[in-house]
From TrEMBL:
Keywords, alphabetical: Biomineralization, Calcium, Disulfide bond, Gamma-carboxyglutamic acid, Metal-binding, Secreted, Signal
Gene Ontology BP annotations: biomineral tissue development; bone development; osteoblast differentiation; regulation of cellular response to insulin stimulus; response to vitamin K
InterPro entries: BGLAP-like_C, GLA-like_dom_SF, GLA_domain, Osteocalcin
Residues of the Gla domain: 63-95
Main function: The carboxylated form is one of the main organic components of the bone matrix, which constitutes 1-2% of the total bone protein. The carboxylated form binds strongly to apatite and calcium.
Upper taxonomic lineage: Eukaryota, Metazoa, Chordata, Craniata, Vertebrata
Species annotation: Xiphophorus couchianus (Monterrey platyfish)
Protein origin, superkingdom: Eukaryota
PANTHER family with a match to the protein in the record: OSTEOCALCIN (PTHR14235)
Protein name per Swiss-Prot or TrEMBL: Bone Gla protein
Amino acid sequence: MKTFIVLVLCSLAVYMTSGTDVNTSLEPAKTLNACPAGLFVEKDEASAVVRQKRAAAELSLAQLESLKEVCEANMACEHMMDTNGIIAAYTAYYGPIPY
C-alpha cells in the first residue's frame, strides 16, 4: 500500500512539473527525471529496511525472550519495553536486531 501511495505521489509530481499533458507526451523517459530528489534510495539502504521489517515479523519466542533479557539490564530500555514493545525498545537502545 505504501508503494502505491509513493507511485501516485510521484506521478502527480511529474504531472504537475511537466507543463505538458501526460497523455500527449511521447517521451516518458524525460518525465522520470522530474521526480523530486530523495524519493528514491540506494539499493543497499532499501534492502536494509526490508531486512529489518522481515526480521521483526519472523522472530521466534526464544529470540524475543533473548531480546527481553538483554533489554531488562537497562532500566530505561525496560520502561520503554513496557510501553512501546520489546522490538521498539531493543532497536532504540541497541540498534538493529542481530537475527
